[in-house]
Amino acid sequence: MNKTKKEILATSEAPPAIGPYSQGIRFGNLIFASGSAGVDPESRKLVEGGIEAQTRQTLINLSKILESAGSSLSQVLKTTVFLEDMHEFAKMNAVYAEFFDPDPPARSTIQAAALPLGAAVEIEAIAFVD
Asked: Which of 23, 116, 9, 99 is nearest to 59 (CA)?
């Protein structure tokens, strides 16, 4: 019988969930991080500065969630990026590359009709813990 239990992840270093979901779940050596947006953890508002600033804050938030479970961005296996506007892809991609160089994870990027809080970008991830 599998005795592995799911562990709810919650850190004050990233914005709290805005609905009935967790910032992330750890199950065994896998972490499933919920979609994160470019929200400042202190003000709980979207950062200003457009898609670049929101992408940067999103990845910082995601990093803090992963770190709370003993993982990091370097241990991300797969991300899904949701963009409000696919015309912003190149700008998002340039910032994303700063965080996932030289060995980026697998990724899907899709355009969404709308994102929570009016965000320009949201990113979710699956990572592992050594």
From this structure: 99
